[in-house]
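Structure (tokenized):
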């Protein structure tokens, strides 16, 4: 029998332990022959990243035991952390280890083998970081990008393409340093050339980047040539197709499309379309396409798996049970593997045979052990922003078959703001969202102006307007749900992490739409962030999002939540990793100190051992339960079985 109870007080089998254990992710998928390899985050193992191998016989096992953590700090978001190298001694696994950021080598077929470091121990902890690893032409070295911390100042970083001898006997060789930022070098099929992507401040890689090619002579690189990209063109992925041509995702027409580029720089779009085949290069080594042979390519187009046929110039969506695919794609002999998800399942490693349509889920955690009736079905909606622009969003309604609200009561709603801000939400299942929706709290995830996936023009709506367009779009979506009778206008919350945390705090201090908000590892002080209080990768990001300093300093000051504490429209909860190098805890702590004593209810929780985002199961438990308790106290409901969060004034 359905029980009548206020929104927010419903009980649910979507428990906090389920949410915490599902807080991991799968990533860095690759094929080695018929074997599938991938990395996955393990919240119940302290948030470590494990490397997993699916053999041809169907057995699946971790490649490396605890405490090995296959992760790195390049750009702080990390890059592809492993590769297989066919050395003169046999196939070896090269990988980066989080604890010391060094590169290690091990025989993956010898369970008794102990990984040994092939990169030197740096003078300062994490002084050298490596990513986007690959083999040298002869297999005697690992070629990759190295990031070197020069001083204690976070943005004081130098990068170079380097070679590490696999036997660990020689010194690290520097191959090239064409740009301030680079991806790892990839060798052509004949071993005579390498290619990489580079870009310089103040551009982010999705603003403008270049594809570079250099000749290889006796293991040394000659001068590089730029064959694609530019100051207003973004290259996000490439693969060697032959000794004299590359397949390249780039956007000279404003959409990431697949192109063929030869060594002279001649470029041909293989299937022009106003859709994104590609994405923002937050982590180097991502893959949105994989060749299938015969002029056909598996691609991720606007988050959907498709096949591009260059002979007909068409891109055709592949009918399959997983509507959402990410930039983790590999293919061989008509079989595609990648990370796929759907409205009823989290991201999983999936192997799909294009000829038969048959698929196999290779990871075990994609289907939650809970009745699907408690999981919300996200509905894609398009709203209208205050400037008349479209604002796509996914609405996750309150969903619980055992409960209904009293007649006439409207549900509280959370507006979820994704990070980046050059990021996006895709409408997949999110157990954290389900934790709230199954208790009677709606969620709407907004792709505000500046989000990726809708072309360069939509992305550039945010140029000079961060803290304005994003706030206005999120507020417009919330108000539209209220006006349409789907949400309680007095119980609207805003929440987000990183850039989404900034938008949360900016909204609470600039509009009256929201009753409260949760800012997770946020930017709070734009002047400090733009003046070096962050890591190198994003240290000049605000030049595009706000304007150059010192010319635009007034905008930085006006839009900083830290300068508008007195204008808070309602209570705020701040959650912060205490080892965060991207949005340092000092920003959150200064903000909370300014709120203290103001009369505005607030809470602050700092998480030991967490960086940018929460990876440990216990951190996820504390954060999600604190958020639910916070909303209950502000919006007037009492969620059962949840520890009460202490709110200060």
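Design, position by position:
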């Amino acid at each position: 029998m359905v029980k009548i109870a206020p929104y927010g007080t419903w009980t649910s089998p979507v428990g906090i332990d389920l949410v915490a254990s599902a807080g991991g992710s799968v990533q860095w998928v690759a094929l080695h022959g018929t074997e599938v390899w991938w990395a996955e985050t393990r919240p119940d193992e302290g948030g470590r990243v494990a490397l997993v191998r699916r053999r041809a016989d169907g057995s699946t096992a971790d490649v490396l035991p605890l405490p090995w953590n296959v992760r790195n700090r390049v750009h702080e978001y990390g890059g592809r952390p492993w590769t297989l190298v066919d050395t003169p001694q046999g196939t070896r696994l090269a990988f980066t280890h989080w604890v010391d950021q060094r590169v290690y080598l091990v025989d993956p077929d010898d369970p008794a083998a102990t990984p040994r470091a092939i990169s030197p121990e740096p003078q300062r902890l994490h002084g050298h970081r490596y990513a986007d690893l690959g083999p040298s032409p002869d297999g005697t070295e690992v070629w990759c990008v190295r990031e070197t911390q020069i001083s204690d100042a976070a943005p004081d970083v130098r990068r170079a393409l380097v070679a590490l001898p696999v036997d660990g006997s020689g010194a690290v060789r520097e191959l090239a340093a064409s740009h301030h930022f680079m991806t790892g070098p990839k060798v052509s099929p004949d071993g005579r050339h390498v290619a990489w992507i580079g870009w310089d401040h103040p551009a982010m890689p999705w603003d403008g980047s270049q594809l570079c090619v250099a000749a290889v002579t006796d293991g040394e690189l000659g001068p590089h040539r730029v064959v694609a990209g530019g100051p207003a063109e973004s290259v996000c992925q490439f693969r060697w197709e032959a000794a004299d041509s590359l397949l390249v995702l780039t956007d000279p027409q404003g959409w990431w499309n697949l192109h063929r580029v030869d060594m002279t720089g001649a470029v041909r779009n293989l299937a022009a379309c106003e859709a994104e085949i590609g994405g923002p290069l937050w982590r180097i080594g991502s893959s949105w396409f994989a060749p299938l042979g015969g002029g056909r390519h598996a691609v991720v187009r606007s988050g959907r798996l498709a096949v591009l046929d260059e002979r007909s110039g068409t891109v055709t969506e592949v009918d399959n049970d997983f509507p959402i695919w990410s930039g983790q794609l590999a293919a061989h002999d008509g079989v595609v593997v990648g990370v796929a998800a759907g409205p009823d399942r989290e991201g999983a490693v999936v192997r799909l045979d294009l000829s038969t349509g048959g698929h196999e889920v290779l990871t075990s955690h994609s289907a939650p052990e809970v009745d699907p009736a408690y999981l919300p079905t996200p509905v894609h909606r398009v709203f209208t922003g205050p400037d008349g622009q479209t604002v796509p969003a996914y609405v996750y309604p309150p969903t619980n078959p055992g409960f209904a609200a009293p007649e006439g009561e409207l549900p509280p709603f959370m507006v979820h703001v994704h990070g980046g801000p050059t990021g996006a939400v895709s409408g997949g299942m999110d157990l954290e969202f389900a934790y709230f929706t199954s208790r009677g709290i709606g969620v709407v995830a907004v792709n505000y102006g500046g989000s990726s996936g809708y072309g360069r023009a939509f992305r550039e709506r945010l140029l000079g307007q961060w803290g304005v367009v994003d706030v206005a779009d999120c507020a417009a979506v919330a108000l539209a749900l209220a006006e349409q009778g789907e949400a309680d206008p007095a119980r609207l919350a805003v929440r987000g992490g990183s850039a989404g945390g900034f938008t949360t705090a900016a909204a609470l201090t600039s509009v009256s739409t929201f009753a409260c908000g949760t800012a997770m590892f946020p930017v709070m002080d734009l002047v400090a962030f733009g003046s070096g209080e962050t890591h190198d990768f994003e240290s000049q990001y605000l030049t595009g999002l706000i304007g150059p300093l010192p010319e635009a300093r007034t905008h930085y000051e006006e839009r900083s939540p830290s300068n508008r504490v007195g204008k808070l429209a309602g209570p705020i909860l701040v959650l912060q990793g205490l080892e965060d190098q991207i949005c340092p805890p000092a920003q959150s702590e200064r903000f909370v100190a300014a709120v203290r004593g103001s009369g505005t209810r607030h809470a602050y929780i700092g998480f030991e051992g967490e960086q940018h985002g929460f990876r440990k199961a216990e951190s996820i438990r504390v954060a999600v339960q604190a958020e639910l308790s916070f909303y209950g106290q502000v919006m007037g409901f009492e969620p059962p079985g949840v520890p009460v969060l202490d709110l200060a004034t």
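Reviewer-requested clarification: Residues 370 and 516 are 30 Å apart (CA to CA). The mean pLDDT is 95.
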